[in-house]
Amino acid sequence: MKRSERLVDMTKYLLDRPHTLISLPFFAKRYDAAKSSISEDLAILKHTLAANQDGILETIAGAAGGVRYTPYLGKTHAATYLADLAARIEDPTRILPGNFVYLSDILSSPQDIRRIGELLATRYAYSQIDAVMTVETKGIPLAEAVASYLNVPFVTARKRSKVTEGATVSVNYISSSLKRVSKMELPTRALPKGANVLIIDDFMKAGGTLTGMEQLVKEFEGTIAGICVLCEADFDKEKLVKDYISLVKISQIDAGKRLIVAQPGNFLSQTDFSRF
Amino acid sequence: MKRSERLVDMTKYLLDRPHTLISLPFFAKRYDAAKSSISEDLAILKHTLAANQDGILETIAGAAGGVRYTPYLGKTHAATYLADLAARIEDPTRILPGNFVYLSDILSSPQDIRRIGELLATRYAYSQIDAVMTVETKGIPLAEAVASYLNVPFVTARKRSKVTEGATVSVNYISSSLKRVSKMELPTRALPKGANVLIIDDFMKAGGTLTGMEQLVKEFEGTIAGICVLCEADFDKEKLVKDYISLVKISQIDAGKRLIVAQPGNFLSQTDFSRF
Question: What strands, in cross-sheet order, belong to the sheet with B196-204?
Answer without folding.
Answer: B154-157, B131-135, B196-204, B223-233, B244-254, B259-264
